[in-house]
Amino acid sequence: MKKLNAIILTSLLAICCTTDIFAYSGSVTQYGNVAYDSNGNSYTTCGNTTYCSNGTSYTTYGNTTYCNDGTSYTTYGNTTYGSNGTSYSTYGNTTYGSDGSIASAYGDTVYYDSPDSQNSDDPTNNYYYGYNF
């Protein structure tokens, strides 16, 4: 279960670190050591690194995951803190983001959603988020 959770976490980071999000929702499903998102991306984990089919990678050392875009996420207890100022707290199978995002894990699939709280005309008003599964 820990490996599944790590794969799903890094898969969600992959989706969120590489996408400008405006009312974004979808799912990630894990099969073996590969996870697939609802956008057609795949994520393969080898050791402590997850590689996304879109060229993004994520490496975890201890309780911190580093994205190749420079963003990092550190987990303490049930809360993950992003270097971009966001935080995500997990209660049971559901994670709540300080940005209003939410994700729920059911079996091998995680469903995620974020609110439409951004001004799409402002390209600097984009955010990324991570989940602590």
How would you characterize this protein structure?
The chain is mainly beta and 133 residues long. Helix content is 12%, strand content 43%. The relative contact order is 0.22.
* Helix content bin: 10-25%
C-alpha end-to-end distance? 10 Å
Low-pLDDT sequence parts: 17-23, 118-133
Which structural class fits the helix and strand makeup? mainly beta
Shape: globular
How many beta-strand runs? Answer: 12
Mind describing the biggest β-sheet?
12 strands, antiparallel, barrel
Rg result: 13 Å
Strand percentage = 35-45%
Supply the number of helical segments. Answer: 1
Write down the secondary-structure element order. Answer: HEEEEEEEEEEEE
Please state how the strands of the largest beta sheet are arranged side by side: 1-2-3-4-5-6-7-8-9-10-11-12
Q: What do the pLDDT scores average to?
A: 75
